[in-house]
Amino acid sequence: MMHMTAKPERAPLLSIRGLGISFPSIYGRVEAVRGLDLDVGEGEIVGLVGESGSGKSLTSLAVMGLVAQPGRVEAGEIRLAGRDIVGLSPKELREMRGRDVSMVFQEPLTALNPAFPIGRQLTDVILTHRPVSRAEAREIAVQALTDVGIREPRERLGAYPHEFSGGMRQRVLIATAIACEPKLLIADEPTTALDVTVQAQIIDLLRRLQAERGLSILLISHNLHLVSELCERVVVMYGGQVMESGSAEELFLRPRHPYSRLLQDCVPSLDNPRNSRLAAIPGAAPSPGEISAGCPFAPRCARATDRCTQEMPPLAQAGAHKVACWHPLSEAVAC
Amino acid sequence: MSVQADKAPRRSLGSFIASQIELVGGWSAALGALLIIVICLAALLAPWVAPFDPVATDFRARLKPPSWAHWMGTDQAGRDIMSRLIWGARASLKVSFGAAVIGTLLGVSLGLAAARFRGGIVDNLIMRTVDAIASIPLLIWAIAVIGTIGPVPIVLGPITLQNEDKLLMLIGVLYLPMMTRVTYTVASAEKMADYVKARVLQGVSQGRIMLGDVLPNCLSPIIVQVTFLIAVGLIVEAAVSFIGLGVQPPRPSWGTMLADARPYILGPEWWLSFFPGLVISLTVIGFNLLGDGLREAADPRRMAHGA
Prior knowledge:
The complex is a heterodimer. By secondary structure, chain A is an alpha/beta fold. Chain A contains 11 helices and 12 strands. Chain A has a domain at 232-269 and 286-335. Chain A has helices at residues 56-63, 90-96, 118-129, 134-147, 153-156, 166-178, 196-213, 224-230, 248-253, 258-265, 306-310, and strands spanning 12-25, 28-41, 45-49, 72-80, 83-84, 101-104, 184-188, 216-221, 233-238, 241-247, 316-318, 321-323. Chain A has an 8-stranded mixed beta sheet, with helices on both faces. In chain A, a hairpin with a 2-residue loop joins strand 1 and strand 2. The radius of gyration of chain A is 21 Å and the shape is globular. Chain B has a two-stranded antiparallel sheet. Chain B has a single domain, classed as MetI-like (MetI-like fold, Orthogonal Bundle), CATH 1.10.3720. In chain B, 70% of the residues lie in helices and 2% in strands. Chain B is globular, with a radius of gyration of 23 Å. By secondary structure, chain B is an all-alpha fold. The two termini of chain B are 25 Å apart. The interface between A and B is medium-sized, with 26 and 16 residues.
């Protein structure tokens, strides 16, 4: 607990405060993300965890300035290296994307243009954002490919996407994402479409990039193993709000929020008896229209009381974590 | 290493030709390409390959059937039909190629613009205009417009627009619906692809994504469409010339030759209509075969099985 409080010394590179994103619906405007606070420090890997529909991908799109119509950022600020990006013009946002913050997502098989060799796609991004000559851009591209562990990068520049395997394509995509030396990389389910051994390689790669380049990474995933493997800090989202946040180790050893605990129980483990049923969280994630004044998890929570359905608990310090729950689990619970 | 390279078998001419045939999509497409090449060469080399002057009349040799002197016979003014067909290819191909170029440039630009602003005012403006053009058949448009402005040449300062030039531009514009719709459909689908999203995330502007990423992925259906447009152009040129609104006599074109043959269609002078009709058919078939072959060659499912 002592070393945890020392963390905030690092100036946050990405600082989200009170983010609200809403969409029009038959219920009127519905808030898909509510009052979200999130920090990513320089050179830090932060995991954003939640079920489908919890608002985690939407949050990442907001950081890229890409919340699509009819969605709208209603409230809050998103500061990247001190600059609030919520009010930026489309041109400023475009210049920011790829240069200051870039993103890889889960479809490495289709995220490269099949019509061009990868070298051209890499140099294209570099030339978009950096004042370098074509030859220099080629060298940067070669360096980026080397950094992501592609052998004989110079020869591979002329290869087309279909000549690469899925894992290799994800490496190429990560290379395009880091070629302009962004400060922040958003990785949205970067390993979901890959098989397990390749997943491990990509995790290693991300960790190495963070160590070597001082890259900050916001890792978005529903895969708790991946997040615990890679991240220092984890933020658990549910129904568009932060339920719990804390160091990865603490959060997995001693979850305080009932939802975090249930998420963990859903992960199959070798320690469980072979015939035991895999745990599942009863009920379904709420659609944004169903969220009432209270805690969004209350309808599925075993510990819920009347207070939970009527009043949203604030995100409060509880031991080493921050947790938004009226009835948090005691610190002693170990998994 | 170098020893291996020396020993590598040299590819024979036969296997080279076979690979080229494979490339355009098989034997029928190769046959189509061959037909087109022969006809284009004949048109280009008309002054050297045509045995007679196409407009020189010889009234002692009127309406002669095919012979060693006149392989395809002579017409009612004693002009050599083969020479007229070869020279006429120039006008016919000029109109059909020129119209295809204009139609492709305009149609692809508008189709991309509509796909770029899909769902907005620009999209609706472009696509509904195109629908309006398409609501009247191409041939009727051509006849109506040329009939209204008349087939006489228009002089614009130093440029004289022959009737065939007007026809070329008109058909080009009338190709808009086909080309715009093909481009719009393919580009709209491509626009949803993940690599386009990735490009947005890399901070590339929409316009550059459309031209630099989406367009190259739309090219194969567009190229296929172009070959069909050329075939349509040939038929429209022939039809419009047939009713006297196309290429003006005495300049030969395939359509005007058919028109000249009309009074003799029930008589014994079969060669007057047979040869122009044959050449038009062969050329149209050539372009269609090539287009079919290219479409097949561009089919990704086929590519998956091949190389």
